[in-house]
Amino acid sequence: MKSNAWLVSGVVLLVLIYLSVFTVHMTQSAVVLELQRPKEIITAPGLYFKIPFLQQVKYFPNQLLVNDSSPAEVITRDKKTLLIDNFSMWRIVDPLKFLQTLRDPENARSRLDDILYSELRVEIGTHELQDIVSETREVIMEKVTKEANPKAREYGIEVVEVRIKRTDLPPEIANSIFNRMRTERDRIAKEYRSEGKEEATKIRAETEKEKTILIADAYKQEQIVRGEGDAEAIKVYAEAITRDLKFYSFIRSMDAYKASLKNDTTVFFSDNSEFLQFLNSPK
Q1: Which residues contact 173 (CB under 8 A, 6 or more apart)?
Q2: What's residue 182's pLDDT?
């Protein structure tokens, strides 16, 4: 019986020792509660003791945590609506205050979203869309981080950094802008086509003008050459006539006979017709 009693006592003692010892790791801090009231805050790693059943330990991470917020709509100073997708890095700096206000990281993320969204909305409301997209994003994030920290410390947490992952327009506004851009591009394309047609008409008109001028110049040159040729022919004829008038009259009459007296042609002339002088003449 005594051996059994010693065995039971040993087991109970081991259980009590096991329940009395706890370890705090390098990535943790701890709060010792006694009857649900804070008794001790432990931030250094090591092996510690507590009173079994009377005290309990709450552990909290002390490394840097990331909170990826859901996209939210904000309005800029020039009344443009933006869809901001941001994330933040934070840590627990006061485990006791964190335990008393938020109790666990999930509640902390929800509360941090509210704080950051409020500060983002205020800060972005002082900037125009163009500045937010291209120039002042870093300044905005630094100011949001600075303004959010006093509110976050009320819950025992510190905001280390806030960053914007993506800035978009809300879907309905984006569609409206895309449609407006498409309409504008169509208008510009129509202007280009209209200008192209106008330029083509000018080119065709200029080409027709040059064509008409060239044809007129060619016709003028043709008439000049033809006139010169006719003048030369008349000159040759005149010289031929002056050399032998009778021979010229004979040749002209032969040409006239050939042109008028064709096959199967009947012509009536008087005996003394001048047209038949070379036919009637014995010489």
Answers
A1: 81
A2: 83
